[in-house]
From TrEMBL:
<keyword id="KW-0134">Cell wall</keyword>
<dbReference type="InterPro" id="IPR012334">
    <property type="entry name" value="Pectin_lyas_fold"/>
</dbReference>
<dbReference type="InterPro" id="IPR011050">
    <property type="entry name" value="Pectin_lyase_fold/virulence"/>
</dbReference>
<keyword id="KW-0732">Signal</keyword>
<feature type="signal peptide">
    <location>
        <begin position="1"/>
        <end position="19"/>
    </location>
</feature>
<comment type="similarity">
    <text>Belongs to the glycosyl hydrolase 28 family.</text>
</comment>
<keyword id="KW-0964">Secreted</keyword>
<dbReference type="InterPro" id="IPR000743">
    <property type="entry name" value="Glyco_hydro_28"/>
</dbReference>
<protein>
    <submittedName>
        <fullName>Galacturonan 1,4-alpha-galacturonidase</fullName>
        <ecNumber>3.2.1.67</ecNumber>
    </submittedName>
</protein>
<dbReference type="GO" id="GO:0047911">
    <property type="term" value="F:galacturan 1,4-alpha-galacturonidase activity"/>
</dbReference>
<keyword id="KW-0378">Hydrolase</keyword>
<dbReference type="Pfam" id="PF00295">
    <property type="entry name" value="Glyco_hydro_28"/>
</dbReference>
<keyword id="KW-0326">Glycosidase</keyword>
<keyword id="KW-0961">Cell wall biogenesis/degradation</keyword>
<dbReference type="GO" id="GO:0071555">
    <property type="term" value="P:cell wall organization"/>
</dbReference>
<feature type="active site">
    <location>
        <position position="241"/>
    </location>
</feature>
<dbReference type="InterPro" id="IPR006626">
    <property type="entry name" value="PbH1"/>
</dbReference>
Length: 393
């Protein structure tokens, strides 16, 4: 056996991909009985096509042709014998039946490796029929409405050229995943739609969000416990609540958040720009090695924000956060603030923020209260380069 053959077999073993020379094969959901007139429920047809493609052993391609497909809650599971593509050329439409709201997932993928989701089609969550049932702002034990697309335990995969509209809850949820690239997606929901985060990430590593537009009613991107090695670049955010790390520290045994980079991004009329928020009081965890760089703010209410006194109930009195925030760089951030305080670093008295750097900040405010201001509380670090408003570190 030649050295080249041995190396090929070793590579096949490492990546767990079949090296049998099987051609790509299309599994068209129409051939499995799916109808594309917006009626019925196509879960059985989609599931059957996925199952056969997953067992094929080569490059299985589940294809959803043009048309409108009514689709109930469905989870596509692995492990598959080969690489998988889920190609959405049509529009998938979520149910409006109230009974459907009891699940947290509309479309899910679990335990899949080397998956591509693409096609230029739509995920229509039909959230307008469900948002009125969201009482999470007043009910801490509220039931979560379904997320449009959920990835759990997915590795070495990508989502691109896809559009999600009017999600009932978050558009995309990424949990316990590794090496995922999301690019050229557009996520849309009205500014007043509750909890419609664009992309929510937790317990995941090496996640990239690139070249996308997110217009929603909550965070454009949110990162919580265990988010590591996340890169966000060339994203247009707004309306929405900005890009947030947190909230952190609410539960026991939260994992650190580290290695987050947000760059070359534009925020338009968002409630916040780049934000780190932690509960007060909170459990112990940390957020570190964070870079926010080359960012344009256009009429953003809180362009630069660290909030370690996050307490929506308003009954926290003098409670302090136990989340440690360190090694945070805000660099080359410019534009306009729609509030007087353009830079606010509100850190914990018991665990002050450390090694925070403000470099070349140019954020102006034109309003009845005069010029933009910076406020720093319990924040330790340095300012350099241009500082408008005047650096408070």
């Amino acid at each position: 056996m030649t050295t080249a053959t041995l190396l090929l077999l070793l590579l096949c073993y490492i990546v767990n991909v079949s090296c049998v020379s099987l051609p790509p094969k299309v599994f068209d959901v129409i051939a499995y009985g799916a109808v594309n007139d917006g009626t019925g429920d196509n879960v059985k047809a989609f599931s059957a096509a996925w199952k056969d493609a997953c067992q094929y052993g080569g490059r299985g391609r589940v294809v959803i042709p043009r048309g409108v497909y009514a689709l109930g809650s469905v989870i596509f599971t692995g492990y598959c014998k080969g690489t998988m593509s889920f190609i959405i050329n049509g529009s998938l439409r979520a149910p409006t039946d109230r009974r459907f709201y009891d699940t947290d997932t509309w479309i899910g993928f679990r335990y899949v490796e080397y998956l591509t989701i693409k096609g230029g089609g739509y995920l229509d969550g039909q959230g307008h029929v469900a948002w009125r049932y969201n009482d999470c702002s007043t009910n801490s034990k509220c039931s979560r409405l379904p997320t449009s697309l959920r990835l759990d335990f997915v590795r070495n995969s990508q989502i691109h050229h896809l559009r999600s509209i009017d999600s009932k809850n978050a558009h995309f949820n990424i949990f316990a995943c590794h090496n995922i690239t999301i690019s050229n997606v557009r996520l849309d929901a009205p500014a007043e739609s509750p909890n419609t985060d664009g992309i929510h990430i937790g317990s995941s590593a090496d996640i990239r969000i690139l070249d996308s537009t997110i217009r929603t009613g909550d965070d454009c991107v949110s990162m919580v416990s265990g988010s590591r090695g996340v890169e966000i670049a060339n994203v247009h955010c707004g309306p929405g609540h900005g890009i947030s790390i947190g909230s952190l520290g609410r539960g026991h045994s939260e994992q650190p958040v580290t290695g987050i980079t947000v760059r070359n991004t534009t925020f338009v009329a968002t409630d916040n720009g780049v934000r780190i928020k932690t509960w007060a009081p909170s459990e112990t965890t940390s957020a570190s090695n964070i870079i926010f760089q080359d960012i344009n703010m256009i009429a953003v209410a809180n362009p630069i924000l660290i909030d370690q006194v996050y307490c929506p109930s308003g009954n926290c009195l003098e409670a302090q956060s136990n989340v440690e925030i360190r090694d945070v760089l805000f660099k080359n951030i410019w534009g306009t603030s729609s509030s007087e305080v353009a830079v606010k670093l509100q850190c914990s008295r018991t665990r002050p923020c450390r090694d925070v750097k403000l470099v070349d900040i140019y954020l102006t405010y034109r309003g009845p209260r005069g010029k933009s201001r910076a406020v720093c509380v319990n924040a330790l670090g340095s300012s350099s380069g241009t500082q408008i408003p005047s650096g408070c570190l």
